[in-house]
Amino acid sequence: MTAYAAALGQPQCPICAGTVFGPGPKGRTAPNGAMPRCAGCQSLERHRIFRIMFDRLGVETFAGWKAIQFSPDPTVDASWFASHELSVYGEPGGLDIQAIDRPDAAYDIAICSHVLEHVGDDRAALNELLRIVSSDGMLYLAFPDPFREEVTRDWGFPKPEKHGHWRVYGADVVKRFAAYIPDQPVLAYRGEDPVTSESEGAFLLPRSAGRHRWIVERLGASVSLFAGPSA
C-alpha cells in the first residue's frame, strides 16, 4: 500500500495500486459491505488474493518460464514469463483442456482458474493439465471455494443458471484428487483479500520434490498438503 493510501486508511489493490472500488457481478458487495471490484484493473477478491500469492512466490523466478493460461484474468501478468500463451475455449485458437493439443512437458506452468468446473470430464482435464507441465514446473488451479459445500454436486451437463458449470465442488474434492491424480501432491493455499477481508483458496500442484519444497519455503503457513478441511 502506498504511504498516501495508508494515511487515508484506504484499501489498495495489490495488482494495480488502485484505491477506487465498485460493486461486483450483479451488483454484489462483500458481507462486510465493502465494494469488491477494482475500478482500475477490474479485479475481484480471488484475483487479488492469488496475485499476493504469486508475489510471495517471487515473480522474478518466472523470467525463464513458459506459461499457458486458460481463461484470462488479472491474477498473473504475461510479462513475468519468457513466453505466455492464452487459451480461451470457443475462441480462435482456444484449446479444450480435456484433450490439450500440445506436447508433453511443453510449459513450466499451467494456469487454470475457474475453468475446471466448466468441463464435462474433469478427470481427463486434470491429467491433461499435468501432462503439459515440465518435470520441475507446476500447475496453478483454482475454482469456486469447495468448502462452501460438503459434497460435490455434479449435474452431468452444463447448468445454464449456474453459469454453465457442470458441477459445484464440495469438501470431498480431496477424494476426487486422490482418485484422479493419486501420485500427484496437491498443496492448498489460502489467503485474504486486503480490500474486502474475504478469504479464498487455490491449489498448487508441483511436478517435482524440489518445486514442492520451493513453494512451501516461500508461502510458509499459508500453504499445506491438501488433505481436506479437517486434516
UniProtKB/TrEMBL annotation:
One Pfam family here: Methyltransf_23
An annotated GO BP: methylation
Q: Which InterPro entries match?
A: SAM-dependent_MTases_sf
Q: Which UniProt keywords apply?
A: Methyltransferase, Transferase
GO terms for MF? methyltransferase activity
The protein's name in its UniProt record: Methyltransferase domain-containing protein
Source species: Mesorhizobium marinum
Lineage start: Bacteria, Pseudomonadati, Pseudomonadota, Alphaproteobacteria, Hyphomicrobiales
